[in-house]
Design a protein that fits this description.
The complex is a heterodimer of chains A (589) and B (433). Chain A has 589 residues and is of the alpha+beta class. Chain A has four domains: 70 residues, Thrombin, subunit H (Beta Barrel), CATH 2.40.10; 79 residues, OB fold (Dihydrolipoamide Acetyltransferase, E2P); 233 residues, Rossmann fold (3-Layer(aba) Sandwich), CATH 3.40.50.300; 127 residues, Bovine Mitochondrial F1-ATPase, ATP Synthase Beta Chain, Chain D, domain3 (Orthogonal Bundle), CATH 1.10.1140. In chain A, strands 8, 18, 21, 22, 23, 24, 25, 26, 27 and 28 form a ten-stranded mixed sheet that branches. In chain A, strands 1-2-5-4-3-6 form a six-stranded antiparallel beta barrel. In chain A, strands 12-11-9-14 form a four-stranded antiparallel sheet, with no helix packed on it. In chain A, a hairpin with a 2-residue loop joins strand 3 and strand 4. The longest helix of chain A has 24 residues. The radius of gyration of chain A is 27 Å and the shape is globular. The mean pLDDT of chain A is 93. Chain B has twelve helices and 23 strands. In chain B, strands 9, 13, 14, 15, 16, 19, 20, 21, 22 and 23 form a ten-stranded mixed sheet that branches. In chain B, a hairpin with a 2-residue loop joins strand 21 and strand 22. In chain B, helix 2 runs parallel beside helix 3, helix 6 packs across helix 7 and helix 9 crosses helix 10. Chain B is elongated, with a radius of gyration of 25 Å. The chains are: A alpha+beta (589), B alpha/beta (433). At the A-B interface, strand 1, helix 1, helix 4, helix 6 and helix 13 of A face strand 5, strand 17, helix 6, helix 7 and helix 9 of B. Strand 1 of chain A pairs antiparallel with strand 5 of chain B.
Chain lengths: 589, 433
């Protein structure tokens, strides 16, 4: 029996509804406005009234309007057809929305129409189903029933898209029927499963899963030990990210959070990237949208868009779906993880998500915590990042979800609640600094304050030595501001120049140069060896001016070297040149 | 369902907010409030059972408890036609220039967000002939960019200069909390250059009711959107968005909302974003570019208004001591266009700023009385040249001239190997002595 209700109050995007039957927390309902139905989610129940956040503008709703409850939690559709899509926070495909809106009027197609919801997976597209399970097989939640080919899942360079038994199954089931090889839509039945009591479940290639509940069809969680190659030198060498790990990028505006996220989305060595543009600028999403189809993924040889899904709930889109968007993103990621893939979720920005919670909490008139954020802010952030992880699936394969979230702290001050709550739960901290970005030292990851618990691509001891020089160089730099260059010893001054050199040639990376933008681990190892030589040599240079000149020249050559593609003749000659320069300066003559 | 009933009893009045009992009222609907203070429009901002909360545009001063309230059954609309061009209105659309009222094509304000899938990538530079913008932080068509400034800085002059020099079909000026003489100055500047004929002004002056201030961005952008859908390139100039945020704060506090940061409502970010995100390049129609002044109280960029703005907009210009600061100023979209201007554009941009940053450090050292090395002296001379040739707001040269001047400035002060420019470029562009 469906529950119905009537609106008794409207305040911003929050409505209060008096209902007649049973409702559940987080259940979805629809407020009726003429022939439109506005989607809403229950956030609080009190007696016979419940408060609901509406995923659309509440303009024109009035007291007494009908509300219909669906009996379901907010869920995502999982199955073939998600790759390359651009969804809003509720998994409505944006391109389809535009087509649908165009039917209203010419101008209407430019705008997101209220009350227009479309299925996340295309309903008319047929997929070539290849069954692998046989009648009589015992299966449980998440077990493979067959596969289809979809984009990068071409069954050649990568296995096909796995069709799995519904994650919601409890216990063991027997395959009663399985569809023969052929083309099916996502809503056509491809198998029937029966539980021990004989009760049958019909299975299609699509399943719905409530976004705020983690998918847990795996045997064990593994430690995140392997480094995830982002090809950003500062990250991979100094502040690495692990496959299945978590990291955050807090930074004031203009410090390069988004560029860093985009670079990572482009070059990270993973199978699938899910980018959640959560409450950020629409322009940046458009950039990804238009550029990714043109870029080639070195792993599959196909366009980069083929491995990407964008969840785009930009800042001017309804704030309630912004709150949902990060959950939608991570649910999609967990689905692909169940296929034994490595998935990277990039959430930009988690502060906007936290602010959405704050807006909601304010409307509910809850007792506010610090900076008016709700008291449950920390536990929500922790629960979100906990959905990352490297897991061993039932068939023994390993899949992972890695989460990287940007944080936009108010005033660029890391002491605010969202940054602090995030730092408690992540494994890597890439703090962006205003001072670095002002000095155009990109990526502006602060090499002294940032940290990571994960394994670097270079031996830890060597990285530590380099960091020590950085730290010492910075100290000397600070000291020099007080005592001046003349009051600094040549030895200290050299350390300072060494630190500056390491920063200029290794930490800084030009995201807009084709060669320099991405440094594979192999190249990082070669580069690091040369940098190390420059750092560890003791030079026999006469005075400060000669030393400065030497480092400037070395730096210039090194930067030129960074532009040379690896494997080219020039790459080798310049490497030899660099080593020779260092050795000459370090020798007595 | 049109509600023709007239209500005569207001239960509560506070600030510009009134509460009364009424039935069949829609959320965000407009009402007309007639009292001894005169007639004003009002908007429904909260429904709770039969209690309706109204925000009165002209303020509640003088509104009596027996005021006549009539609900109009529709949301706030703004007229739209080419007759708007050359005219000036208040925030609620009443002519402020003595001209006739315009009632064509009433269009709702605060319409839904643009579908990101229907946007195109911004790719056209907007030339301003100000080197600090064109060379270092290029303005791009459809960009949204604030000018962060402090009281007393010439931000309105800068805005007017950009309005005159930048290429656009329609200019819309939204003034919030403007002094009356500033409004007149805008008008006369635009009039003198002949740009007034393509300008629409929605102006709230400091003496007008607070609620009208809140309407200015919505009204301005709703009209801009209409022009853009007709294929026009529209430049929207808003000044000052801090007044807009303060008006929101005032209303939120009156409504007894829980404040989040320095009294501002928790949805400040979303509210600002809903306005700024109207900047767009439509796939198959015109565009909207937004330049908005945000004054920073006490010059503090971490104040909630500039802080939230910075996270929304595509960069920012800092106007300080009458010039655009190179540090902190940023055009996020410049990468889209500066690759197609001249091959040395990006390199000159980066190299000059890096050296200017070093100059700043040297100035600090110098002020502490340290001995200046040969390198320091080079930097000092370079810094002075840079400020004179690039930063001075009176410099009015094209991008190409600015680039040439950049090379000259580097060559005047440094050796080729000292500026950190890849040899293949410096070989080509380094001025021959």
């Amino acid at each position: 029996m469906t529950t119905n209700g009537k609106i008794v109050a409207v305040n911003g995007n929050m409505i209060t509804v008096k209902f007649d039957g049973a409702v559940a927390q987080n259940e979805v309902g629809y407020a009726k406005l003429g022939d439109q139905r506005l989607m809403a989610e229950i956030v609080r129940v009190r007696g016979v009234k419940c408060d609901m956040q509406v995923f659309d503008s509440t303009t024109d709703l009035s007291v007494g309007d009908d509300v219909e409850f669906s009996g379901e939690l907010l869920a995502a559709e999982l199955g073939p057809g998600m790759l390359t899509q651009v969804y809003d926070g509720l998994q409505n495909p944006l391109a389809e929305l535009a087509k649908e809106a165009a039917k209203i009027s010419k101008d209407a197609e430019f705008f997101l129409q209220r009350g227009m919801y479309l299925p996340g997976l295309p309903r008319d597209k047929k997929w070539d189903f290849h069954p692998t399970a046989k009648v009589g097989d015992k299966v449980s939640a998440g077990d493979k029933l067959g596969w289809v080919t979809e984009g990068i899942f071409d069954n050649k360079t990568m296995p096909g898209h796995k069709i799995m038994a519904p994650f919601a199954l409890k216990g063991n089931y027997t395959v009663k029927t399985i569809a023969p090889e052929g083309d099916y839509t996502v809503t056509e039945e491809i198998a029937t499963l029966a539980d021990p009591s004989g009760k049958e479940v019909k299975v299609t290639m699509m399943q719905r899963w409530p976004v705020k509940v983690p998918i847990k069809c795996f045997t064990e969680r593994l430690a995140p030990e392997e480094t995830l190659e982002t090809t950003v030198r500062t990250i991979d060498t100094f502040f690495p990210v692990a496959v299945g790990g978590t990291y955050c990028i807090p930074g004031p505006f203009g410090a390069g959070k988004t560029v860093l996220q985009q670079t990572t989305a482009r070059y990270a060595k993973v199978d699938i990237v899910i980018s959640a543009a959560c409450g950020e600028r629409a322009g940046e999403v458009v950039e990804t949208l238009k550029e990714f189809p043109e870029l080639v993924d070195p792993k599959t040889g196909k366009s980069l868009m083929e491995r990407t899904i964008i969840i785009c709930n930009t800042s001017s889109m309804p704030v309630a779906s912004r709150e949902a968007s990060v959950y939608t993103a991570v649910t999609l990621a967990e689905y692909f993880r169940q296929m034994g893939l490595n998935v990277l979720v990039l959430a930009d920005s988690t502060s906007r998500w936290a602010q959405a919670m704050r807006e909601l909490s304010g409307r509910l008139e809850e007792i506010p915590g610090e900076e008016a954020f709700p008291a449950y802010l920390e536990s929500r952030i922790a629960a979100f990042y906990e959905r990352a992880g490297r897991v061993k699936l039932k068939d023994g394969t390993i899949g992972s979800v890695t989460i990287g979230g940007t944080v936009s702290p108010a005033g660029g001050n890391f002491d605010e609640p969202v940054t602090q709550a995030t730092l408690k739960v992540v494994g890597g901290f890439h703090g962006l600094s205003r001072a670095r970005s002002d000095a155009r030292r990109y990526p502006a990851i602060d090499p002294l304050d940032s940290w990571s618990h994960y394994n670097s691509v270079i031996e830890q001891t060597r990285v530590e030595t380099a960091r020590k020089i950085l730290r010492k160089g910075n100290e000397v730099g600070q000291m020099m501001k007080v005592v001046g260059e003349e009051g600094t010893s040549l030895e200290d001054f050299t350390t300072y120049l060494k630190a500056e050199f390491l920063d200029a040639v290794y930490l800084q990376q030009n995201a807009f140069s084709d060669t320099d933008a991405t440094t594979p681990v192999e190249r990082q190892k070669i580069m690091f060896t040369v940098v190390e030589k420059a750092l560890l040599s003791s030079y026999k240079l006469a005075d400060k001016d000669t030393t400065r000149k030497f480092f400037m020249d070395l730096q210039q050559t090194f930067i030129d070297w960074n532009d040379k593609p690896m494997g080219s003749a020039e790459f080798e000659t310049m490497k030899a040149q660099l080593i020779e320069k260092i050795e000459t300066a370090a020798s007595d003559k | 369902m049109f509600n023709n009933k007239v209500y005569h009893k207001i239960d509560a009045l506070s600030g510009s907010v009134a509460t009364l009992r009424a039935e069949g009222v829609k959320y965000n609907e407009i009402a007309e409030v007639e009292s001894r203070a005169g007639t004003s429009l009002a908007q429904v901002i909260k429904l709770d059972g039969n209690n309706v909360t109204l925000q009165i545009f002209a303020g509640a001063r003088g509104v009596d408890t027996s005021a006549k309230v009539r609900f109009l059954g529709e949301t706030m609309k703004v007229p739209y036609s080419s007759a708007l061009l050359g005219r000036a209105f208040t925030g609620s659309g009443v002519p402020r220039d003595g001209g006739p009222e315009i009632k064509d094509n009433p269009s709702p304000i605060g319409q839904p967000s643009v579908n990101p899938a229907k946007r195109i990538m911004p790719n056209e530079m907007v030339r301003t002939n100000i080197p600090m913008i064109d060379l270092f932080n290029t303005l791009v068509k459809s960009q949204k960019l604030p000018i962060f400034s402090a009281a007393g800085e010439p931000y309105n002059e800068l805005l007017a200069r950009i309005a005159l020099q930048a290429d656009s079909d329609v200019i819309i000026i939204g003034g919030m909390g403007l002094k009356y003489d500033e409004y007149l100055k805008f008008r006369s500047t635009l009039d003198k250059s002949g740009a007034l004929a393509k300008t629409v002004m929605f102006v709230h002056t400091a003496a007008d009711p607070t609620v009208e201030c809140m309407l200015v961005p919505d009204v301005s952008l709703a009209v801009a959107e209409k022009f853009a859908l007709e294929g026009k390139n529209v430049l929207v100039l808003l000044t000052d968005m801090t007044s807009f945020a303060d008006a929101m704060k005032e209303i939120a506090i009156t409504m007894e909302q829980i404040p989040s940061n320095r009294g501002y409502p928790g949805d400040l970010y979303s509210q600002l974003a809903a306005r700024y995100e109207k900047a767009v390049d439509f796939d198959g129609a015109g565009s909207i570019t937004i330049l908005a002044v945000t004054t920073m109280p006490g010059g503090d960029v971490t104040h909630p208004v500039p802080d939230n703005t910075g996270y929304i907009t595509e960069g920012q210009f800092y106007l300080k001591n009458g010039r655009i600061e190179p540090f902190g100023s940023l055009s996020r979209l410049k990468q889209q266009v500066n690759k197609n201007t001249r091959e040395d554009h990006r390199t000159i941009m980066d190299a000059m700023i890096k050296l200017y940053a070093q100059y700043k450090e040297t100035v600090e050292k110098q002020s502490m009385g340290f001995k200046m090395s040969a390198w320091d002296n080079k930097l000092l001379k370079y810094g002075a040249d840079f400020e004179k040739r690039m930063m001075d707001l009176s410099v009015n040269i094209s991008l190409e001239d600015a680039l040439d001047l950049g090379w000259k400035t580097l060559a005047d002060n440094f050796d080729k190997t000292e500026v950190g420019i890849p040899s293949k470029l410096s070989d080509k562009f380094w001025p021959k002595k």
